[in-house]
Amino acid sequence: MKVSVVTISYNQAEFLEQAIISVVKQDYRDIEYIIVDPGSKDYSRQIIQKYSAHFSHQVFEPDRGPADGLNKGFLLAKGDIFGALNADDLLISGAIRKVAEYFKKNPKADVVSGHSIIIDHRNRKLRKSYSDKFSPIMYAYGAAELMQPSTFFKKSCYIDTDGYNIDNNSNWDSELFVEMSLNGAKFRLIHEFLSCYRLHPDSITLSKRLDQNIKNYNKLRFRKLRGREMDKVDKNLRLFFIMLKYTKNPMAFIERLVKGKIYGRKTY
User: Fold this and answer.
1) According to CATH, what is the number of the domain 3-259?
2) Measured between alpha carbons, how far is 192 from 148 in angstroms, rounded to an integer?
3) How does 235-256 read in b/e, with b if 16+ C-beta sit within 10 Å?
4) Domain residues of the chain, as ranges?
5) Cα separation, 104 vs 90, whole angstroms
6) Is 38:66 a contact under the CB 8 Å cutoff?
7) For residue range 195-244, what is the model confidence (pLDDT) as tens digits?
């Protein structure tokens, strides 16, 4: 079973080499690694050149943003399973092997998500972040989370969609999962930590520069999954579903209670 990993890189030289090493040192042989860089102006290209022998494809052409870059990468991918790793994130040792083994043992699964360790720009561990068991209603209310770098999906599941929405510059991964769900994809949860998700001042999660885009996407997600606009009653229901989320996943509640939220937190 071949696993295709696409890394999108743009002016992330500070972290890029660590991301690449985390893939090339995986203990699973059948990995196809594709990197997409639309024109970094730092020393990212030199790093990519250093590891060029490990890439099946290198895409160096302008694009319309991260979602477009991912689509370009997966257009070339030949694997059975797809995964996306941002240039500032990391895969944990053994992650791809564990994912491939799960898909082999559970052939009806289409999308498999694990958990992540949240780290900062100095690789310091900040907290754990848990993916939730996916359900459309929980996802619609923002009461379920799939950690993006710890989520892998079948190629067939991806090509049944139109790919990542290139007009979505804040939640392109989440919108793809919505489309997969609407197509009947079967989501599964693996209780393994598969990736490190990095927070740093330039990351979307911390910068808050796309706050309004995220709010607009949350409304779109609800409309797509529930078939209507959110009303006042739904705001109360959202609180109920969030409470339900933490009831189902007490470890996530403990992390949230003790170590705080992910979005908007500070790193130094």
Assistant:
1) 3.90.550.10
2) 14
3) eebbeebeeebbeebeebeebb
4) 3-259
5) 24
6) no
7) 999 998 776 555 566 788 889 999 999 999 999 999 999 989 999 999 99
